Description:
The protein is α/β, with parallel strands linked by helices. It has helices at 38-41, 43-53, 80-90, 120-129, 142-145, 159-166, 179-184, 201-213, 227-232, 243-255, 280-284, 294-297, 313-317, 320-325, 370-375, 380-384, 397-400, 409-426, 441-447, 452-464, 471-485, 493-501; strands spanning 2-11, 14-25, 30-33, 62-68, 102-104, 107-108, 114-115, 134-138, 152-156, 217-221, 271-272, 285-286, 291-292, 302-305, 327-331, 336-340, 344-349, 388-392. It folds into two domains: 2-177, Ribosomal Protein S5, domain 2, CATH 3.30.230; 194-506, P-loop containing nucleotide triphosphate hydrolases (Rossmann fold). The chain has a five-stranded parallel sheet with strand order 11-14-17-10-18. A four-stranded mixed sheet has the order 1-2-4-3.
Amino acid sequence: xxxKTYCSAVQGIxxxxxTIEVVVSKGINFFMVGLPDSAVxxxxxxxxxxxxxxxxxxxxxxxxxxxxxxxxxxxxxxxxLPIAIGILAASEQVKSDNVSDYIIMGExxxxxxLQPIKGALPIAIQARQEGFKGVILPAENAREAAVVNNLxxxxxxxxxxxxxxxxxxxxxxxxxxxxxxxxxxxxDDYEFDFSEVKGQENIKRAFEVAAAGGxxxxxxxxxxxxxxxxAKRLPGILPPPSLHEALETTxxxxxxxxxxxxxxxxxxxxxxxxxxxxSDVALVGGGSFPQPGExxxxxxxxxxxxxxxxxxxxxxxxxxxxxxxRVVTVSRARFSIEYPASFMxxxxxxxxxxxxxxxxxxxxxxxxxxxxxxxxxxxxPLLDRIDIHIEVTPxxxxxxxxxxxxxxxxxxxxxxxxxxxxxxxxxxxTAGVYCNAQISSKILREVARIDNAxxxxxxxxxxxxxxxxxxxxxxxxxSRTIADLDASTDIxxxxxxxxxxxxxxxxxxxxx
Length: 512
């Protein structure tokens, strides 16, 4: 008897429906075809043992399992459950009437229970697009899949439940999630707040400008000045993600297996902070079984690289293309996968190996030339993609001991949202551009015109401060954002002056 069950293979952040065809006929042996990997081939032993534990058995006949389409490699153990149900239906131990109405996924334990899988959300989205009645998957993944409306989602904890459901012996309870309530109830669910930061008003202002325009930012300062503490608070002042952005972010984390048990939607912007020993593959994604890297996990959020010069040169250089294209393409001989990677890069570094160059109180002990050598670990092309450079100095005791509370992240966020709304209106006709940081040089010339006074100021600054040529466009972009924060149509000299202040590392005299 021939029976077809349906499951999904996750590729990138999307899924492809896989048809599992099972035939039980006279003879002996078990054959599995359709480009399965080792984990899929091993499912025979897991299925056989699991079914015995719950009172069922694989028939002692010839069993052929075909996984179509055969040109897509089937990886992982999530195909155990659909194969098991297909074998039982083909051997008439399970009624096959409704089996083909559902996408079935799940890894079997030897006692028949189900282990969670990766990629439940893209699997559910694909199931709805292709008109399946519902999905059956492990209970831990049910809330994640239930984010997709107009689809029956059943979370099960044991294979016996699935068998009895198809036999009509029990009714499974549907998992339901009100996506909009789930999303809007947790938009402000951030752990850190700028009100906890004493002093550093100029740094907070730089973060506000960076958030308002989507600009990449680098902090340079002595150890203990508060660089990491400030970076962790940046997501709290970014505009809340749209429902579409939240779904996209959740898909990436689902595919990577980074969602916790019983999680549903990720309503806040991600903050990723990889260690400086990370490899280039772990950062951008890939591997023998391609997975999203840290820059894709930071999609729609913040990627924080602490102690930037300590990262390997090759790791930093692979960031250059994603920072421009906001997407990563992982190419292999048989296939190509694309991961989104639209993130804000925030980084920090010490000014020198000892950390105390330009410190107001402590003396730098580095030998001559060590400071410039340390800074040169960051290449010019990478630095070119960072709009805001800011020096962070230690907070004096009198500011640390002040009882007066600082401004809350909520208040800063309101100003950032207003500035972003201005930018969205300005670029509504330009595809793929939502903020000032994303505009090309051509658009920049149209939206960032400056008057004679501003032009003279910029010329004087570039000559006297020895600013490099690459600083010119960056200053205009940042000044456009500062003008948006002031709700100003024109870029005024004071906006340019503040933007010039944010180009510390472009000064050729710095550390020279």
